[in-house]
Amino acid sequence: MTARAAVILAAGQGTRMKSPLPKVLHRLAGRAMLDHAIDTAEALGCHKIVVVVGTHSPEVGRHVEGRLGKAAVAVQDPPMGTGHAVRCAEEALAGFAGDVVITYADCPLLRAVSVEPMFEGGAAVTVLGFEAADPGAYGRLVLGDGDTLLRIVEAKEANEHELRVNRCNSGVMVCERNLLFSLLGEVTNDNAKGEYYLTDIVELARRRDLHCRATFTDEAAVQGVNSQAELVAAETQFQSVQRDHFLTEGVAMPMPESVFFAWDTEVAAGTTIEPHVVFGPGVRIAGPAKIRAFSHLEGAVVEAGAEIGPYARLRPGAGIGPKAKVGNFVEVKGVTMGEGAKANHLAYLGDGEVGANANIGAGTIFCNYDGFNKARTVVGEGAFVGSNSALVAPVTVGAGAMVGSGSVVTEDVPAGDLALGRAKQVNKAGWAARFRKAMGERKGRKG
């Protein structure tokens, strides 16, 4: 296979987002739009990936450096159109020999399956198109025989016949590296905006009697995002596709329109997801489980037969074992729960582990933070922690041990022992009756 590289354009101003966060770092399904574009380039097997950024958004450059390294960043300064943006990546692609795909960081729904056919056919330039429901201001693709692309016509320059064409340009292109920059060297800015347009390379290639072609994908796959409203539309499309996918794979969702998935959510067939469940990044439902209503999961693994919720929260590092139960208003962070372990209601479990078949009573808190450092709590297999207990880490409750309700446990509890960490109850005979009488008499005198 011919070597591949990607140039991802991410230098737009993004002013229509009206946000201090650069447009391409806005998240779709819990992941920056730019990262979706990089994911697609990696899925295509691109040997080199270059992201063209603007000087107005240094955060974007830092984001790229953090993921791909400094060599993956090319700077466009000042912005002078899409053709100029691609030329800014020329130095970063020095020494590369192969095909270059040009994509956009604000097109987060584009996937490798839509782009892969562009590398076939042996054309000098290949353009990815789509059939638009409303062509509007999109550039039109004028085709000849078969998939031959004759030219790209901007809507404002199209005649009446061309305006009726609904096959439109997505902006995504594939071209061999040396030819690409040779063609871009001939692009001029002799237009109303004074910019260098990438689309001009089609006409320039045909002047050299080179073959240009178009491939097509669904309109939704090349949906661009330039505003908050368009980001919502893209999110809606992503969620719709994910819901259909999981339903097809055997996941039961009585009210799928209320369930939200992250970009990397994994759910095993046979799982039931009740209404109003939100999956943040990093969740894997490893076996058929029940995720009950109004639960939020992020960075967690749930094994077969487990039940989560309703109103439960799993935070990063939560590992819920087979047939374990995390009930309503229970928060789990950085804790693994063994098979059959239960925390049925009103508890915070942070940093530690709960052994198989252990029971965590209502109101229990793992006191994992002393204001400076975090420590672990270990509850052994078959242990029982009574309601309203505070386990002050670092501490271990041994296998089969019990903690009396209302205890504050600051020392390890040996296996099989009972821990009572509360003050001895004292009953003062008649005190309440005498108090009420005295208060009543005082109130009467004041009246």
Protein model, in words:
The strands form five sheets. This protein has an 18-stranded parallel beta sheet that branches. The chain has 447 residues and is α/β, with parallel strands linked by helices. Helices cover 20% and strands 29% of the residues. It is built from nine helices and 32 strands. The longest helix has 21 residues, at 228-248.
Low-confidence stretches: none
Main beta sheet strand tally, sense and closure: 18 strands, parallel
Query: How large a portion of the residues is in β-strands, by DSSP E?
Result: 25-35%
Q: What would the principal axes of the Cα set say about the shape?
A: elongated
User: Distance between the terminal alpha carbons, to the nearest Å?
Assistant: 96 Å
Give a quick summary of the entry:
By secondary structure, the chain is α/β, with parallel strands linked by helices. It is built from 9 helices and 32 strands.
